[in-house]
Design brief:
about 140 residues; mainly alpha; 5 helices; about 0% strand
Length: about 140
């Protein structure tokens, strides 16, 4: 065995030794960071979602199978509450945002459909318009 081969073997052994130890350390470190992040997230989301959950519970329509999940969101005990709270908050915010800007986006959708000719006119409406002013509405017959 040459000196170069011995040196390469020594480097490989050192790399394996440290890879094992550093891999475990990095996994532990990253896992602890994720754990702390979710605990902080669940604790910060709980006060915002608690009034909404209490209103839902007052309705009396909450199935008993769902109650433990709502309790976990209101008073978080672990990381699972952050996931539940994120889903609940995202659904609430998403519904509010989509219902607010939905009508304006619908106008944009209609415009795109008109430009791409993805819409269909009502045949009776086309015939009625054409009977009133044949020259003006003659182009609408392309859709029929």
């Amino acid at each position: 065995m040459t000196a170069g081969e011995r040196f390469r073997n020594w480097i490989d052994e050192v790399a394996r030794f440290w890879a094992d130890r550093l891999g475990k350390w990095a996994g532990t470190f990253i896992g602890a960071g994720i754990d702390a992040f979710f605990k902080i997230l669940s604790k910060s989301a709980a006060p915002m979602l608690k009034p909404l959950i209490e209103r839902i519970e007052k309705s009396g329509l909450v199935p008993p199978e769902l109650q433990p999940l709502l309790d976990e969101i209101k008073d978080p005990t672990g990381e699972f509450a952050a996931i539940l709270g994120g889903a609940a908050g995202g659904s609430a915010a998403g519904g509010l945002i989509s219902s607010t800007i939905g009508p304006w986006l619908m106008l944009l959708q209609y415009l795109v459909q008109k430009l791409a000719k993805q819409y269909r006119l009502d045949p009776l409406a086309v015939i009625t318009a054409w009977r009133r002013e044949p020259e003006k509405y003659a182009g609408l017959f392309e859709d029929l």
